[in-house]
Structure formats: structure tokens, C-alpha cells
Amino acid sequence: MKGPLPVRRSPQGRPVISQAGSSGPGMNLGAAWAELTFTTQWDIESSRAFVAQTRALTAEHGREPGALKVLPGIMPFVGSTMQEARGLAAEFGSYVDVEGLGAFLSHHLGNLDLDGLDPDEPLPDLRPHLADNASVSRPRLYIETALRDGLTLRQLAQRISLTLGHRPVIGTPESIADDLEKWFTAGAADGFIVLPADLPQGLREFAEQVVPILQQRGLFRREYSRTTLRGHLSE
Fold first, then answer.
1. Does 120 map to a domain?
2. What is the tally of structural domains in the chain?
3. 2, 50, 161, 229: least CB-packed within 10 angstroms?
4. Helix 153-163 and helix 82-93, axial crossing angle in degrees, nearest 10
5. What residues make up the domain containing 24?
6. Where residue 169 sits, what CATH number does that domain have?
7. Predicted TM-score (pTM) above 0.85
8. What does each C-alpha distance from 36 to 14, 22, 132, 141, 157 come to in angstroms?
9. What does the alpha-carbon distance between residue 125 and residue 103 come to, in Å, rounded to a whole number?
10. Is there a domain that residue 59 lies in?
């Protein structure tokens, strides 16, 4: 078909461009073109460093450093008590298929050969065995997390499957709000992409219990003054 596109132009002019990934090439691509970066970050100091590097790369491409928003993914587990929230997270983690443990972890760890490793022993340092390419940033993060927290293969598989690889935020509405505020005020994130463990209940609990606390603290808008995603990002 030739001629003009027979659809109405978007009210925001052009779509918001989002880049996902934390590898060097991915960061450079996002810094050049994107307006959102969807990233996996589990440690606040590492995330601060990621934000700083993203800002520097964005400036190198002739853009305003803050033109690219960094939004780590989080998976909230909201409970009336910490014990209840931990129980909910443990319940979801228990759904991991133990029979498929090796294949599951191998896939998420850059197709490493895990045969011979005891699933209930602490994960050894597998970083030297990772391939040198752009797709290993997340496997490296998983291994470093397991080493830092002393996780076994089984526990690491549960954590990855539990959160789709993103950071679990487990606690009461107040403690979750505290956590998000800490990351935001420390410059470790411009915001967050919320990935509920279940829908619609998980999203409803976050929206009804955590968001009002963030609003009370002046960290989340009470109403929208724009009508597009691009407009919201500019506020």
C-alpha cells in the first residue's frame, strides 16, 4: 500500500521509547534513544552507580542527563505484618518445579552447565564461566546475589522464579513505602515498574495500601494533570 498512513496521529506526537537491559551495549542504546530504561537492580548502591553511568552516557550523546528515566522492576509482597508478607513470598516461591531446577537455572545463568552441583549447597562462584557478551549482565547479577546472600541453587531458583528476576520487596505497606522512598531519595531510581506476583490481587493491594502512603509523603501524585505517558514523564 502506498500513500499516507490511514490512522490518526498519537496525541503525544511520537511513542515513548523504552529500553530494557543493563548490559553495556544496552545502556548505550538507551542513552542515545530511549526515554525509559527498565532495569534489574537488587542493591541500592549498585543502582545508584547504574543511574550515574546512565546519566553520563546520556550526556555524552548530547542529551540532558535526566532525559532518560531509570525504572528498576520490583515485585511487592504486601502483608499486614512482616511475617505474613514473608509467608506470602515463601508460598509463591514454593511453586518452583524442583524437577526442572537444573534446566531452569541453566537458562537464567547464561546456559551454564550445572550438572553435578548439589541443589542444597551454596552456589559456587560461576562468574568466570560466563560468556563474554552483552547478554550476561543479569546472570552475573544473579550469581553475585547468591554469593552475597549465601543462597543455594534451590533458593536462587525460587527467588528468580518468584520475582521474574526482579527485586522482591517484602513487608508491610509502611516498610515497602520506606524502601521505595529510600531508593528514590538516594538517587537509585527515578521510579519503579511494579510487577505484582498475582493479578489482580497483588496490584490492588499495592495500589490501595502502599500508594496512599507514598502520596502522604509527597512522593506520588494524587491526580494526573496530563493525558499521555509522555506528559506524565515530563512532570
1. yes
2. 1
3. 2
4. 100
5. 18-234
6. 3.20.20.30
7. no
8. 14, 12, 26, 21, 28
9. 18
10. yes
